[in-house]
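Incident review: delayed structure delivery

Summary: a single-chain prediction request sat in the queue longer than the usual turnaround. Root cause was a stuck worker, restarted by the on-call engineer. No data loss occurred. The affected request and its eventual output are reproduced below so the record is complete for anyone auditing the incident later.

Affected input:
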Amino acid sequence: MSLQHQTPHERQDMAAAAMRTYPNISRAWGLKEHEAATLLGVPDSTYRRWKQQPDRAPLDVNHLERMSLILGIYKALHILLPNAQAADSWLKRANQNPLFAGHAPIERMLNGQVSDLYVVRRHLDAARGGGVA
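Output delivered after worker restart:
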């Protein structure tokens, strides 16, 4: 079922679960609080409030889409690179793939656009289908 067709209660349950999980991913990736907020597309103060009260975080469809992409990136990295340290540090290592032009993938993700999260997710999904990220 798409996010738009879920009930407000279902979306709130998803939002709470996502906000309980996301700070752990952010910490594993070594993100600063500002960077974690940027990936979600929210001001720092909003991210802090949501992190403190995940059950009350009113994530809209845009935030849930971002969260879905972030969780997918995290999962794909841990499938491709079973060593947790290697998986978590991949985003911060320079990447010669033309998508990243020698920069770390996290730099692209921190542009703040959903499309940048999508590009990284698709890249990793393609790597899972064959080849190495």
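Verification: The two ends are 30 Å apart (CA to CA).
Action items: add queue-age alerting; document worker restart procedure.
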